[in-house]
Design goal:
The protein is of the alpha+beta class and 349 residues long. The protein has helices at 4-20, 29-35, 59-81, 86-99, 143-153, 161-170, 184-196, 208-211, 268-273, 276-287, 291-306, and strands spanning 42-50, 119-125, 131-137, 158-160, 215-220, 226-232, 253-255, 260-266, 310-316, 321-325, 329-336, 339-345. Helices cover 38% and strands 22% of the residues.
């Protein structure tokens, strides 16, 4: 027969074993997350997702995009490596992408049905969930700067149209003639869209090559701050001042120091409906899953079932990164100490 002391020992051992087990809600994910080493800093970028395949890309064009992605990574990673703040890295990196006509943001923005460029952007900091967003800009050179100004210099989160332009001008942001945003490639794209257009009024009939095009950056700095930013020219041939997911906080842009920072690209109407950015964060917060598990669930399961195409980039509070997409390709890359990856097509890591 066991002595009373032996019973006490067995009870203590059982209690200790129970404390070491993951909860049924969190499963094995918490153990994985807790064991991952923390990166000193991390920066992830995207330049849009969509039907991007090798057979549609010339070697010269491929090289152009890879050069631009690497230059963007250099800009943001250098800021973080030297102890700079995540918000500076995100804003400066996105400004570079906005100024590069290869991407559908800023100078490379697509045209609306009326032949105009309407620009949207958002930025969010994970420390206090501060956020700023703008939509429908036509004369502000760098919309991401306007989004940051809304966050830091106003009591609001989201400004649109003429009001957003007036506010940006009052903050001393650089204004340009709308002609600055003209590029022949985007104009030709609008003409093709107009010729092929069928007046259905349904967003579900929008051809794949007209849905995609965004730039984004997420970053973790040495102080543990997470920041997300996104900027876009929207959808080719869009009408009625359509606004997509990019400036909608929680849909195309989201950051929370407790979980992750997310920037999305894809068919915005779906990303709004499924609040994709926040959904990734919520899965991590409430289910305890890893960043990879959360992004796979949202992008490769929920969105696929809904027939929503696109992708996202994300970084968590440990510097783990995700570049998850269900389309044929996504311009993307990340940099952190000792690691750098740039990719375009689906078959690249």
């Amino acid at each position: 027969m066991r002595t009373l002391l032996q019973y006490f020992i067995l009870i203590a051992l059982a209690a200790g074993w129970m404390q070491c087990q993951p909860s049924s809600q969190n499963g094995e994910a918490n153990d994985v997350q807790m064991s991952l080493p923390k990166a000193e800093y991390a920066l992830v970028i995207h330049g849009g997702a969509g039907t991007i395949t090798r057979d549609q890309m010339t070697p010269e064009r491929d090289a152009e995009y890879r050069k631009a992605l690497n230059e963007a990574l250099d800009i943001g990673a250098d800021i973080l490596k030297n102890g700079g703040a995540a918000i500076e890295a995100v804003e400066t990196t996105i400004m570079y992408l906005e100024d590069n006509p290869l991407f559908n943001a800023g100078r490379g923005a697509v045209f609306t049905h009326e032949g105009k460029n309407e620009l949207d952007a958002a930025i969010m900091v994970g420390k206090d969930l501060g956020a700023g967003a703008v939509a429908g800009l036509t004369n502000i050179k760098n919309p991401i700067r306007a989004a940051r100004a809304v966050m830091e210099k106003s009591e609001h989160v989201f400004l649109t149209g003429k009001g957003a332009e007036q506010f940006s001008a009052e903050q001393g942001l650089e204004e340009v003639d709308p002609q600055y945003f003209f590029t022949q490639n985007r104009w030709d794209g609008l003409q093709r869209a107009l010729q092929a257009d069928q007046p259905t009024g349904s967003i579900f009939s929008v051809p794949e090559d007209r849905k995609m095009g965004t730039v984004g950056c997420v970053a973790l700095d040495k102080n543990g701050e997470l920041v997300a930013g996104t900027s876009t020219g929207g959808m080719t041939n869009k009408r009625w001042n359509r606004i997509g997911d990019v400036p909608v906080i929680g849909a195309g842009t989201y950051a929370n120091n407790a979980t992750c920072a997310v920037s999305c690209t894809g068919h915005g109407e779906y990303f709004i409906r499924y609040t994709v950015g926040h959904d990734v964060s919520a899965l991590m917060e409430y289910k305890g899953v890893t960043l990879t598990q959360a992004t796979e669930e949202v992008v490769m399961n929920k969105l696929v079932k809904a027939e929503g195409s696109g992708g996202l980039i994300a970084v968590d509070s440990n510097g783990n990164v995700a570049m998850t997409f269900n389309s044929e390709g996504m311009y993307r890359g990340y940099a952190k100490p000792g690691e750098r990856v740039v990719g375009i097509y689906k078959d690249e890591k």
